[in-house]
Design goal:
Layout lengths: L2 H7 L2 H4 L5 H17 L2 E9 L2 E11 L5 E7 L6 E5 L2 E5 L20 H4 L3 E11 L2 E10 L6 E7 L5 E7 L5 E11 L16 E2 L3 E2 L2 H6 E3 L7 E9 L6 E8 L4 E8 L8 E5 L2 E10 L2 E9 L3 H10 E3 L7
Antiparallel strand pairs: 1-2, 1-10, 2-3, 3-4, 4-5, 5-11, 6-7, 7-8, 8-9, 9-10, 12-14, 13-20, 14-15, 15-16, 16-19, 17-18, 18-19
Length: 317
């Protein structure tokens, strides 16, 4: 059993500190309010597998409550994302061939009441990030199917200044960290406009039949289907369905691509926190490649991939 060592060893330094769950829930509420009401612009670094990149982000809350944000990578491959009310409008670089359903900055509105069932929420101390005083929150998973998160929230506004994703041994998988943050001025309109390289997102809401025709015989506890989209495969003209599942914090996607006789091998890989598991599944309409992609443990992704079924296959007892 992995569960016993997981719960006793996970984030040992965190377990030695007193849990202040009520305060943690209050801070998560402040974070949600800040994301809806606070405009800002700044620069942050992203780290994964020892590799760093630098990004600018502009986040503007407009009249009527609409939120517009733009992310621009400043080094390495050109990457850009423009989002309105949490929906990607256009992307550039390698993101252009992907279904984009993630924040420019990783933290988003978090429902403490939903998360407390799957994470132990704690205030664990204070820090200073980008010259600003911060309070540190730990979100410790209650099982082995999700990663832990450490959030450093700005004491003045509640905005996330740093986010660390940690595995069950406390090892760093991913870091987002502001190096500069300006909350004094609303980003100007021209800073939020996409460049000519930013291409419209090609994902669209899928037909209801996609969700009706597919199911998983097993999902990690707390994960529910949140979004179903459809897009064209970058390798063919086939339509690829994407089912997105989340627990209010962690998220993974299941891509369903008809193979039309193509020879494709099962595969599994991991880059930092992101895993990808692919397996061929035979259906009455031909073989389909099922691919699970997300920031969840590899074993969890494999189990989800193995559990995907079409409606024609009876549910497992």
């Amino acid at each position: 059993m992995r569960f016993i060592p997981f719960t006793t060893l996970l984030f040992g330094s965190w377990l030695a500190l007193p849990a202040v769950a009520a305060d943690a829930q209050d801070w998560l509420q402040r974070l949600a309010e800040a994301e809806r009401s606070q405009s800002y612009q700044g620069t942050f670094v992203y780290e994964r597998n020892g590799s760093f990149s630098t990004h600018s982000v502009w986040h503007r809350v407009e009249e009527g409550g609409a939120v517009r944000e733009r992310l621009l990578q400043l080094d390495g491959p050109a990457q850009e994302v423009v989002r309105v009310d949490g929906r990607a409008q256009c992307v550039s670089g390698t993101l252009a061939d992907q279904v984009v359903d993630s924040q420019a900055w990783p933290a988003r509105e978090l429902d403490a009441k939903q998360l407390v069932e799957w994470y132990d929420l704690r205030v664990i101390g204070d820090s200073r990030v980008a010259g600003r005083a911060a309070v540190v929150l730990a979100l410790v998973p209650r099982d082995q199917h999700r990663y832990g998160v450490e959030l450093h929230l700005d004491r003045e506004t509640g905005l996330p200044l740093k986010s660390l994703l940690l595995n069950d041994k406390g090892q760093l998988l991913e870091r987002f960290q502001f190096t500069q943050l300006d909350i004094s001025a609303v980003p100007e309109n021209e800073l939020l406009q996409p460049s000519s390289a930013c291409q419209p997102v090609r994902a669209a809401e899928a037909k209801a039949s996609v969700a009706e025709n597919w199911r998983s015989d097993w999902l990690p506890p707390g994960f529910n289907l949140s979004t179903v989209t459809e897009r064209r495969s970058p390798a063919s003209e086939a339509s690829v369905a994407c089912l997105v599942y989340d627990d209010g914090l962690a998220r993974f996607s299941v891509f369903l691509e008809p193979l039309h006789g193509a020879s494709v091998e099962d595969a599994r890989s991991q880059l930092g926190p992101t895993v990808a598991v692919s397996r061929r599944l035979s259906t009455n309409d031909g073989d389909v490649m099922v691919t699970v992609v997300g920031e969840i443990p590899l074993g969890t992704a494999e189990r989800v991939a193995l559990s995907m079924r079409t409606a024609e296959v009876p549910a497992a007892p």
